[in-house]
Amino acid sequence: MTDQSDDPEVPIICEECGTETTVALSELETQLERHNDNRHDGEKHATVDPTLKSQLQDLVAEDLGLFE
To answer: Out of the domains of life, which is the source (predicted)?
Structure first.
């Protein structure tokens, strides 16, 4: 089990609802699925904040040496 104090929070947004929130990384997938299932009949409207997603993709690509 993850110690809640060590679990980073991830911003998620839903432009369809106009909502923004943060959730623990360990709960991210569950919370996104729950929101999209309950509010949007399973359509994927709620996502990780696009700015953060882009930053993470860049960090992973850099770590893998894809920018060299």
So the answer is: Archaea
